Amino acid sequence: EFGRGEVVWSMSAHVFLMDEHRKDIPALFFYKGTSPSEVQLSVGISRAVNVAVEDKVVSGCHPVIIRYTHNGRMKTLTIPDKFVEVYRWTHIVVSIDSVNMSVMLNGELIFTYTLQNELMINFQPGQLDTFLGTSPWEYGRSLTPSAWVFQLVLLGGTALEPQQALALMHKDQLKAWQENI
Fold it and tell me: What's the predicted TM-score (pTM) here?
């Protein structure tokens, strides 16, 4: 843990898209924030695109969207090269280590970014600030996707590395398999 920042945490979830998202505004499956101007972190997808893979075209591929607030302004990061596909389970992890953000899909590091500030994650008793899907005040800025979300976890004090994200993904999958026997 030597050299870690003071603000260290991760968000992990398994997502299964049941329908293509075709709107121009993002569809969020995780939202943490207290108001329209204070989005601590939201994770979702943008409009579906077709992607050429070797000798075929795959439809229903959704770029990952990350949103957060800096100086009272919403910042949106779009990860263009890796996708959440419709009708496939995808494990997504967003790790924050001080001002460093890492995004992993299925245990693979797909994106790193240096933030302008640390993204604090605060919990206040009785405060409606954590949502599976979008928040009520996001109306017009985002939607909730047609998706299943399994094992949504916030890990305080832990910025997951790719091998840790992969181990967590396999642990969650084993748990789901054992529960369905």
Answer: 0.87
Each residue's pLDDT tens digit, 151-181: 999 888 888 888 899 899 988 888 887 887 7
Please answer whether residues 94 and 162 qualify as being in contact, where contact means their C-beta atoms are separated by less than 8 angstroms.
no
Two tokens, residue 152: 């949504």
Going by pLDDT thresholds of 50, 70 and 90, the confidence category of residue 1 is very low
Count of alpha carbons within 13 Å of 107, Cβ hemisphere only?
10
- 17: which residues sit within 8 A by CB, 6+ positions away? 45, 60, 62, 84, 85, 86, 87, 88, 90, 145, 146, 147
Write down the H helix ranges in the chain. 162-179
> How many angstroms separate the CA atoms of 59 and 51, rounded?
6
**How far is residue 122's CA from residue 107's CA, in Å, rounded to a whole number?**
26
